[in-house]
Amino acid sequence: MTSFPRPAEGTWTEHYPDLGTGPVSFEDSISPRFYELERDAIFRQTWLSVGRVDDLPRNGAWFTKDIVAARTSVLVTRDMDGAVHAFHNVCRHRGNKLVWSSKPTQEACGVARQFACKYHGWRYGLDGGCVYVHQEEEFFGIDKSELGLVPVHCEVWAGFIFVNLAETPRQSLREYLGPMVGALEEYPFDAMTERYTFRAENNSNWKVFIDAFQEYYHVPPLHTQQLGPSYRNPEATFEAAHYQLDGPHRVVSTSGSHKHLFPEEHLYPTEALLRSGNMGPWEAPTIDRALAGVNPGGVKRWGIDNFQIFPNFELLIYERNWYLTYRFWPTSYNTHVFEADLWFTPATTARERLAREYAAITVKEYALQDAGTLDGTQLGLESRACASFPLNDQEILVRHFHKTVADYVAAYESAGTSR
Ligand code: FES
Ligand SMILES: [Fe+2]
User: Pick from 41, 26, 36: which is nearest to 332 by CA?
Assistant: First the structure.
């Protein structure tokens, strides 16, 4: 894999001349028309991470994922042979949403052998095949074998389930992920099965929240209380250690704050008591497998990698042997659903369990601090008071993300496939 060391001269941004260094417009985050283009150009073209194999814990398990931006709901199943499938969650009879539990507008999960449509009772197997048509003889020459659920391209990589709603995806998932993200394939994600989940409905464009996780420039002013003592000053400076781009994907690595190394008087009493904090539980579990693909920049006191897998999936891997996923699902040009999941090796003692709970609460706290700026940023952008905004070198990933989005939309428009 090509390495991307910090440039000896110049800046991170100048290392990627295509990005330019000029001010950036965020019209892409406030334009209803642009959002309509993104729906087709991005959410119906790229590989989207919809879950993990852990969401299908046994044969017959299923879950639904509503992808509003792509105008569909997807049903993901594990059949009785263990194979993972994805389908449009739409009944072939008259288009009813096939699988839902309490409300058709909510996602659901469960275990089943078959799915029965709530409208007229047609039934489908875990492999999508239509197995029962109520009063079949009253139809006119239908063939059940041609009335299976409409499949969606689905591939599993490192235990993450991805779907692609294009008729023919331009690349396989592995090609799409490229060498930088692909290098994580053997990372021991499967050893980390203890999960903590958060979900929020936010009032901003999906990209505005993603931008909050692409740089650490905002850390001293916004997250003052979660840093080490030397940073508990809004005027402190903080810089991430490594930035890297690979195709549409990005990573930022940081040394983070190694609180487990701090003297006790610099810690909150809860941190000292629970031996945990914003970098996770201090006692990192031993994992006797290589931590493949992490710290691509060879950062000396590495703390976190934040891999940003285009378009809306983030994988944050911590030096303390746990990881975090974020997914950002647009629901309109200025609203989105945010999903966060923390993954740890299973706790073996009550102390370990408490340390994980404390890490989960800390993540929620700083995500709330980040989310707290969203309405304000969206309102400010929508005022259109400013036509463009200056970005500094630490905001290289913001610059790259918006350029990538623009490139996808431009390619889609020039292909003349716009609806
Ligand atoms: S719409 Fe599903 S059985 Fe009629
Ligand atoms: Fe933040």
Answer: 36
